[in-house]
């Protein structure tokens, strides 16, 4: 739909898919696995990952454990980054591993289909109640009801800030497990600043609950899930490479400050940290080059390198760290995804003769949304290398990303369009070989 602050935008983009009738019942919630073909079932065997409840349930109307730490503001500084579970410089997780015994068959199905589809958004946790978060989750679940099985999402990559206000296990039921109880796919990603913050007097260490729920050695019931069936994720670290058919995501942990994001010691500015994530990123990029990898390459951080947000600023030194690693390896991403700013923004950056979308998607349910510092007509040229191509600071929503051998399309779907609407409000397509956008 046309947004009042984007008067030059077309009212609708051309549809890229068609969906079946919205499932009956609560909101847009289908039964777990509804619309999911036999080639993509939710794993249920003993010792295998489980993603959704066997029977859908209505959205909750209140939290079981209301948030009480909203006024805590003492963030003493950056926190140490937990060591990966592997000694390798580049921790790697594959989609096949995520799906367990069914993973190899799923990966082959995706290869045969010629494309992969997945979700991405951050800042889903809410301290005010489940309402806005459920709106986005319900619309995401509606994407599993598709006429074409190849359009069904294979996973959800979270851009951080899963729980608010501090990343304690007590909040995971209300803000993670319950909202996604009907989401019939794996959820993985990177932590945000709120996931890593701890109370100044709290005996818990930074990211303890995140590690328990997302970096477990094997899929298992979580003590934080309140009896819901989704099992823990098996990420090797809070920063790692996620390898799936047609796409590779290099996830970085940008630590606990409100601003800026930090991934290194920045020449001694942050002595708590080291160069470990820079080594990881450089190693991962060098592997892309040595393998002559032809798929889509994404870098993900919670804090945005660029933002016009009125509440959160950009992270130029973090961007410099990323740029230095890309320059050293001679490899640049096809897109950079982030959250933190509670809205949707899409920039096009020209660097090394490439056009790279930098997409901010921090509109996954945390309330309230934040406005941009000023209302502008897009595309809005910031300088000779950077243009604000589109934005939406009035609605919650998420990214639906489609990748094939030649292109990657990043779509923004606002929740207000409802579960029956399959047409994005904004999208950009990247030519993978040419590094150009359209």
Q: What's the structural blueprint in terms of helices and strands?
A:
Layout: E1 92-94, H1 95-98, H2 103-113, E2 115-121, H3 131-142, E3 156-158, H4 172-177, E4 187-189, H5 193-196, H6 208-214, E5 240-244, E6 247-251, H7 276-290, E7 296-300, H8 316-329, E8 335-338, E9 344-351, E10 354-361, E11 380-381, E12 386-392, E13 397-404, E14 407-414, E15 426-431, E16 436-437
Parallel strand pairs: 1-5, 2-3, 3-4, 6-7, 7-8, 8-10
Antiparallel strand pairs: 2-13, 5-6, 9-10, 9-12, 11-12, 13-14, 14-15, 15-16
Helix pairs in contact: 7-8
Which range does the strand content fall in?
15-25%
What's the CATH class label? Alpha Beta
Tell me the structural class: alpha/beta
User: Count the strands?
Assistant: 16
Helix content: 10-25%
Largest beta sheet: strand ordering: 1-5-6-7-8-10-9-12-11
Domain unit count: 1
Mean pLDDT: 90
- Overall CATH architecture: 4-Layer Sandwich
Instruction: Supply the CATH superfamily name.
Output: Metallo-dependent phosphatases
Summarize the main sheet: 9 strands, mixed
Radius of gyration, rounded?
A: 20 Å
Shape by Cα distribution: globular
Commentary on this structure:
This protein has 438 residues and is of the alpha/beta class. The protein has one domain (92-437): Metallo-dependent phosphatases (Purple Acid Phosphatase, chain A, domain 2, 4-Layer Sandwich). It has eight helices and 16 strands. It has helices at residues 95-98, 103-113, 131-142, 172-177, 193-196, 208-214, 276-290, 316-329, and strands at residues 92-94, 115-121, 156-158, 187-189, 240-244, 247-251, 296-300, 335-338, 344-351, 354-361, 380-381, 386-392, 397-404, 407-414, 426-431, 436-437. A nine-stranded mixed sheet has the order 1-5-6-7-8-10-9-12-11. Helix 7 packs parallel to helix 8 (316-329). It is globular and about 50 Å long.
């Amino acid at each position: 739909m046309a947004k009042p602050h984007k008067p030059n935008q077309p009212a609708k983009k051309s549809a890229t898919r068609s969906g079946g009738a919205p499932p009956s019942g609560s909101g847009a919630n289908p039964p777990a696995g509804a619309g999911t073909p036999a080639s993509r079932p939710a794993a249920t065997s003993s010792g295998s990952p489980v993603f959704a409840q066997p029977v859908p349930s209505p959205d909750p109307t209140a939290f079981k454990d209301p948030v009480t730490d909203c006024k805590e503001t003492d963030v003493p500084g950056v926190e140490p980054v937990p060591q990966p579970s592997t000694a390798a410089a580049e921790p790697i997780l594959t989609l096949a591993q995520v799906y367990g015994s069914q993973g190899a068959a799923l990966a082959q199905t995706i290869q045969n289909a010629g494309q992969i589809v997945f979700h991405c958004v951050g800042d889903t946790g809410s301290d005010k109640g489940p309402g806005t978060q459920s709106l986005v989750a319900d619309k995401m679940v509606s994407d599993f009801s598709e006429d074409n099985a190849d359009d069904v999402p294979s996973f959800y990559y979270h851009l951080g800030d899963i729980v608010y206000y501090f990343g304690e296990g007590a909040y995971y039921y209300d803000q993670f497990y319950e909202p996604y109880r009907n989401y019939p796919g794996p959820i993985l990603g990177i932590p945000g600043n709120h996931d890593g913050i701890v109370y100044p007097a709290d005996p818990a260490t930074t990211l303890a609950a995140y590690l328990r729920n997302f970096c477990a050695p094997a899929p298992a019931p979580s003590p934080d899930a309140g009896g819901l069936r989704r099992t823990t994720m098996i990420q090797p670290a809070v920063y790692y490479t996620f390898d799936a058919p047609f796409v590779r995501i290099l996830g970085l942990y940008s630590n606990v400050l409100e601003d800026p994001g930090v991934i290194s010691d920045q020449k001694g500015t942050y002595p708590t940290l080291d160069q470990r994530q820079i080594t990881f990123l450089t190693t991962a990029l060098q592997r892309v080059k040595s393998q002559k990898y032809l798929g889509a390459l994404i870098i993900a951080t919670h804090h945005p390198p660029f933002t016009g947000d009125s509440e959160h600023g950009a992270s130029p030194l973090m961007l410099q760290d990323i740029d230095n690693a890309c320059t050293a390896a001679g490899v640049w991403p096809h897109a950079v995804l982030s959250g933190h700013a509670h809205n949707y923004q899409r920039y096009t950056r020209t660097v090394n003769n490439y056009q790279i979308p930098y997409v901010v998607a921090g509109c996954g349910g945390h309330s309230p949304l934040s406005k941009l510092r000023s209302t502008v007509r897009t595309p809005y040229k910031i300088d000779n290398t950077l243009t604000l191509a589109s934005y939406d600071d009035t609605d919650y929503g998420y990214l639906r990303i489609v990748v094939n051998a030649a292109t990657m399309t990043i779509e923004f779907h606002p929740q207000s369009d409802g579960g029956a609407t399959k047409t994005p409000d904004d999208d950009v397509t990247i030519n993978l070989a040419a590094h150009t956008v359209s």
